Amino acid sequence: MSPYSSRDIALFIIAFFFPPASVAVKTGCSVDLLINICLCALGAIPGIIHGFYIVHKYNDSVEDIETGVFRYERVATEEPSRVVYGATNPNQ
Fold first, then answer.
1. Which residues contact 20 (CB under 8 A, 6 or more apart)?
2. pLDDT digits (tens, 9 = 90+) for 74-84
3. What percent of the chain has pLDDT over 70?
4. Quick one: pLDDT at residue 85?
5. Which of 42, 41, 54, 43 is nearest to 15 (CA)?
6. Pairwise CA distance, residues 44 & 33, whole Å
7. Which contiguous run of DSSP H or E holds residue 7?
8. How far is residue 46's CA from residue 66's CA, in Å, rounded to a whole number?
């Protein structure tokens, strides 16, 4: 399985030529878009790097908690009645 979807690969190509467009597709009208526009005004390279970062950060193929791939187990909350260290013999 490829680490990036075909949509992400297309967004990487778009981010190379016009980074604010790829950031807008990934994050919508957010602070990331404003940052990218400011970086593009400072120079092309910072805007391109930020565009690549945003496309990578919000990757479509990343598995997250909401998809149910992680399984959580309950952690004991009670204090043990007796603390035992190492391989001690409690009968001595």
1. 33, 36, 37, 40, 47, 51
2. 665 666 666 55
3. 62
4. 60
5. 54
6. 15
7. helix 6-17
8. 32
End-to-end CA distance of the chain: 57
Q: How far apart are CA 42 and CA 37, in angstroms?
A: 9
What does DSSP assign to residue 30? S
Closest CA to 16 of 39, 42, 50, 41: 50
The two three-digit tokens of residue 19, written as one number: 């980074």
Taking CB atoms within 8 Å and a gap of at least 24, the contacts of 36-45 are none
Per residue in 3-16, pLDDT tens? 778 888 899 999 99
Closest CA to 53 of 41, 66, 35: 35
Answer yes or no: are the C-beta atoms of 58 and 27 closer than 8 Å: yes
Report DSSP letters for 31-90, one per residue.
HHHHHHHHHHHH-HHHHHHHHHHHHHHT-TT---GGGT-----PPP-SPPSS---TT--T
pLDDT given for residue 79 in this prediction: 62
